[in-house]
Fold this protein.
Amino acid sequence: MDKICVLDFGAQYAQLIARRVRELSVYSEIVPCTEPVEKLLAAGYKGIILSGGPSSVYDDGAPLPDKRLFEAGIPVLGICYGMQAMGFLLGGEVVPAERREYGPADLLLEGGGGLLDGMRPSVAGRVRVWMSHGDTVMKPPRGFVRLGSTDNCPVAAMADADRRLYGVQFHPEVVHTAQGKTVLRNFLTVCDAKGDWSMATFIDTEVAAIRKTVGRDRVLCALSGGVDSSVVAVLLHKAIGEQLTCLFVDNGVLRHGEVESVVATFRDAFEVNLIHADASKRFLARLHGVTDPETKRKRIGNEFIAVFEEEARKLGEIPWLAQGTLYPDVIESVSFKGPSATIKTHHNVGGLPPDMKFKLIEPLRELFKDEVREVGRLLGLPPEIIWRQPFPGPGLAIRVLGEVSEERLAVVREADAIVQDEVRRAGLEREVWQAFAVLLPVRTVGVMGDFRTYAEVIALRAVTSQDAMTADWARLPYELLARISSRIINEVKGVNRVVYDISSKPPSTIEWE
Ligand code: XMP
């Protein structure tokens, strides 16, 4: 398989670059800029993209690529800081900015140079691109030609076609650069990279790899019903069938219909060996009298480990544990965060007792979320699983504010089902990141018919987000809000008021607890 390296200089957009390259059917991976040049050159990359980054080439200890990278005959594309570093190292003129340029800019094309070929001018003979930079290349290095400029940027793109070295000051990977894909596609053509990365071929290779890795061993997979663990389960099932056992723990704080849907999908439709451990009573007992959110989280986490351990021991000797680790988690553990690089290690299975020593199998560790969804679709998972919203491990327990009881869980579960239903009917389930109901620990006065009521309040939370790190409250249509509100008040016994949460994250969080 042909592959492209994205050398990460601490860019906000490194993942986006890798995703865009993969969308063009070429496999690409992110490598921290601290990787020794010998290893990079020996890895067989068809091309190398130098990412942007927060530094200036004039900073003390600025991360700079090794010059040998430009002499190896491998095509290199520098984006933003990557272009400045290339310009600086190869003898061009780079000046520190007085202030950062951020936002749209209009690129005046001076030539395609193999890199900008096929870009079509639209705005007054110019191409709209997205800028976000500090330093500026004033003069390209010897051997390079200038391909375009903007009002603030005399060299917005440059090329040395003979050496196959290229630079763009703008960001071709972001959606605001509408023709950015043309630039990346041109670079892949220069790299002579075959477009042989697809989820269908991924499934074939991964199935073979899983068979080779586990041999005749058994594998245990903790199934939560979320998209990642579901895709892991069906992929493993395709690879090793009966050798796979999935363990699904019902902790009593799942959403309406979730338990039934997991059982129907995996046991009935896919015929996976599924252990459905109904531990809801145990979890609820552990939550009795608890109101503090972190205590709820801890108790649920610990109880999960206890149940998981008990059930796993019943199954006899199973050497492998399958996990739905995705590529962003892997990158997170190696990513470059500037000179004071903090390297995080990724511990997803933290917490299992030390004598339970599983070997880990992580078949999705090369994939981005959208690729995981595509794998799920190709393997026949139903859309409601593929598009399931993120759902917290502590589940509805942190959406019943205050003490959790079976009755209060029933209220929030019923209200939540109405939210899910209405958001889906409005066709907005893929636009909102999460939408859910929260049961507040207060009562308010209302009037129903001729009677005064004193009943519960549901808060409706709906957010848009890319990654849950930041989020904004979703501007749901008033008609939809009205429908949700009147259905909850009419259909959910004990609720007489619905409020809409209009806080963004930060400073609020997505969940209320
Ligand atoms: P917050 O509330 O911190 O949530 O803005 C960010 C994202 O994380 C989810 N979340 C959790 N997921 N265990 C989880 O597995 C937890 O304890 C937990 N708390 C929050 C939340 O649903 C959102 O997607």
User: Anything to note?
Assistant: Residues 218 and 317 are 8 Å apart (CA to CA). Residues 338-350 have pLDDT under 50 and may be disordered. The first strand starts at residue 3 and ends at 8.
